[in-house]
Amino acid sequence: MAIVVNMPRLSDTMEEGTVASWLKKVGDRIEEGDILAEIETDKATMEFESFNEGILLHIGVQEGETTKVDELLAIIGEEGEDISALIEGGSNADEDISENISEDISEVTLETEATAKAPESSTAEMPEGVIVVTMPRLSDTMEEGTVASWLKNVGDFVEEGEILAEIETDKATMEFESFNEGTLLHIGLSVGESASVDDLLAIIGPEGTDVSGIAQNFKPVTAETQTEEAAKTKIESPAPTVVVETPKVEPPKSEDPLTTMATNGRIYISPLAKKIAEEKGIALGQVQGTGENGRIIKRDVENFSPTSAPSVATVPKFVASGQEDFDEVNHSQMRKVIAKRLGESKFSAPHYYLAVEFDMDNTIAFRKQYNSIPETKISFNDIVVKACALSLRQHPQVNSQWFEDRMRLNNHVHIGVAVAVEDGLVVPVVKFANAQSLPQIGAAVKDFAGRARQKKLTPQEMEGSTFTISNLGMFGIESFTSIINQPNSAILSVGTIVEKPVVKEGEIVVGNTMKLTLACDHRTVDGATGAAFLQTLKGYIENPVTMLV
After folding, report:
1. How far apart are CA 268 and CA 260, in angstroms?
2. Which one from 96, 210, 256, 522 is the annotated catalytic residue?
3. Neighbouring residues of 525: CB distance < 8 A, sequence distance ≥ 6
């Protein structure tokens, strides 16, 4: 029977996906674990593997094209199979397929890996020993999860406490342990596919149990469905699922030296990584692959630093004089989400801005003396973080958060530090920053920044900020304004230190100043409150020794 493969949801904010490249073409034989395509999401470009075998009968989205989550991506089946009805039906075609499924289950009792159960008033019964494992909630903000990898194959026996899969949110990838034991009978999401919390992830039970009907007709039991239909099991067909086994990535069958692997002098590389390498002029022989079997993937090329051989210079596009010319670049998924969230913040929170300029002479001298201590190195940004943390303890209104029905005045200080990553921005959080020393803050920020660019931060490391700092001083920006990172009430924009003439004690002398701009949500922070906070901050930054008292 043909299987409809839909556009997966690869992050909890993803609404659309773009096909970066197809690694298989119509007519090719697909094996379990083969990489079908590379999908660009709002967070990254990920390899999408097939966990079914058969012939690739149809491709629904061409390279460079974008489609919504759960829309038709491809169809896999037997050679010569008639799939015209599936193509016409698109992502809803599985409803037609499900009509042929026998509905001989009298009751379904659902149990998640966290031992969450369906209402006891359910009127049917799950086959004895069978447990439906649903997508877990791995953070307090998680709504959907993406399967990064399966550590068990269908047919494997799973012990309680064993790692079943790695689940990716939009922020990190976390191991997911099994809280039950039994044979892995069914896997509902392929690697790279996403589902909402409590949707079908897998089925565990006695070996040989037929669970095809359960898998096809599963619908999560939520608080709403429990209230509305606690006396019966609600069944509907989910998006087509595919059977997953541990990926067995086969090298691309290509004689192109850029798409083969380092065996017999050849190199394996994903098409997207190849494209980036060509654009950057990177010699692939110098790149170490970290993908399956040493395959070079996108992150390997992006993180590559030339060691010896010079890179080929990128040649600017030639445009004849007097000729109009342009290139169009589709929005990445991350850029779309950033635009949506910042737009919501800008137009829902009444922003206003308070700009100040601080004398940095004492701060420069303080940092120089502090860094003279062996094995110690702090940055100006570390000083700003510490000064803000101490100031926020004295001004809880600025350290507040706005919610629809209440305002939260935080007595703890968790400072988010904005870090630029490829085509976007993430905000790791320095927890209890007021209680940390300058070297501790410096080490934490440096570690966060490095792992943020490698997308190795955990969700917990990017949650719970009460205030945010955005620093563009290292880029020579003197002043700018930022958009508040909701639900926080304020964000501080930090510019570069500028040497210029200043007036001190009635005389013009050479001095060093730094401009800062505080963006406030007027619903929680009045102008006088924001100004008082900046006065306190001024005392700490202009006299940083007071932070050590």
Report:
1. 4
2. 522
3. 397, 398, 400, 489, 490
* Residue 91 dihedral angles phi and psi, to the nearest 5°: -70, -10
Residue 222: predicted pLDDT? 54
Q: What is the CATH number of domain 335-548?
A: 3.30.559.10
Which fold would CATH assign to domain 3-98? OB fold (Dihydrolipoamide Acetyltransferase, E2P) (2.40.50)
pLDDT band at 244 (very low <50, low <70, confident <90, very high): very low
Indicate the residue type of 92: N
| Choice among 96, 256, 447, 526 that is catalytic | 526
DSSP state of 547: G
172 close to 456: Cβ distance less than 8 angstroms: yes
CATH says 251-319 is which class?
few secondary structures
d(CA 348, CA 327): 34
Q: How far is CA 210 from the centre of its chain?
A: 36
pLDDT in tens, 257-316: 333 334 344 566 776 777 777 777 787 777 877 765 677 877 788 777 664 333 334 457
- Catalytic annotation present for 526: yes
Cα(53)–Cα(30) distance, rounded to whole angstroms?
5
For the question of residue 423 being annotated catalytic, the response is no
Tell whether the model's pLDDT for residue 164 goes beyond 50. Answer: yes
User: Is pLDDT above 80 for 223?
Assistant: no
Tell me the CB-side half-sphere exposure of residue 188, using CA atoms within 13 A.
29
Query: Are 66 and 50 contacting, i.e. CB atoms less than 8 angstroms apart?
Result: no
Q: Per-domain residue ranges for the chain?
A: 3-98, 251-319, 335-548
- Does 251-319 match 335-548 in CATH topology? no
Interatomic CA distance for residues 324 and 295, integer angstroms: 41
Closest Cα to residue 29, out of 53, 47, 5? 53
Give tens-digit pLDDT for 3-51. 888 888 766 567 888 898 999 999 999 887 788 888 887 766 777 877 6
Q: pTM of the prediction?
A: 0.50
What pLDDT band is residue 458 in, cutting at 50, 70 and 90? confident
Burial 436-464 (b: 16+ CB within 10 A, else e): bebeebbebbeebbebbbebebbbebbbe
- Let me know: does 485 contact 426? Beta carbons within 8 Å: no
* Better-scored residue on pLDDT, 142 or 129: 129
